[in-house]
Give the backbone structure.
Amino acid sequence: MKWIFAFLLAVAIFGSAAYFGYKIFIRPEMIMRAEKEAAANPHPTPDVSLPEFEAAKKLRDEGKLVEARSAFTALIQKYPGGLHAGEAQDLLGEVNTSILLSNYPSPEKEEYIVRSGDVLARVAQKLKSTPELIMRTNNLSGTMLRIGQRLLVSHPEFSILVQRNAKWLYLLDHQHFFKRYRLLDEKLPANSAAKIETHVAEIMAWKDGKRIGIGSPHFLNSTRWIRLAAPGYILYSEPDDAHQILDIPPPNDGIGMSATDVDELSSLVNPKTAVTVMQ
């Protein structure tokens, strides 16, 4: 019987030691590891905006551009800091330009029938548009018009907001978001003001190192710059996949964007377009 008592006593002693060892050393270590894993893998934020985002994308994919525009706009207003806010802005910008720069029918477009004596610049001025915007909307390859020709003309009121630190250029229409463009480079003086209010001074087009005008047959395939009224502020083109070789090197000062973006933006703005540049 003594050996049984000794065995039970040993079990009690070593069992107690094991229990206290677990409680003092092992369990705290396990809790600490669990806490670290929980911190490293937090519970995912519910993606409450996903159904509306997917519904807006579906409208876009089905070619229902006006409906998609309304859906993306509502989504951004409802979830300004949502998981899909940035992507929704990019898709809304694509939808907006697809509607504007095509003959896709939309409520804001006016039909104009070309009359005798009409020239593109005069029509653009009369209808408060720009020659290139009318050309792009109606898929015109040149500035010549035909009597009786039907043109779709939009009347946007664009302004530009440049956020240098965030590296975004926002194009606004009647002070509402229209599209955003990525800034690629900046070559401005170190003492540049934190904020400037200016406007577009001119659209510059280059071909083979020479300036050309909108009436040139090479205008649509030219390298564009947008010169602002503030000295040293030029939105210039940088090479991209669609424009690997440009017709002129970059200026000494300015803000660089992809050539495709400058090409598109230059067709939307005019010398009256207000521009705000901020750090």
Observations:
- The domain at 158-278 is CATH 2.40.440.10 (L,D-transpeptidase catalytic domain-like).
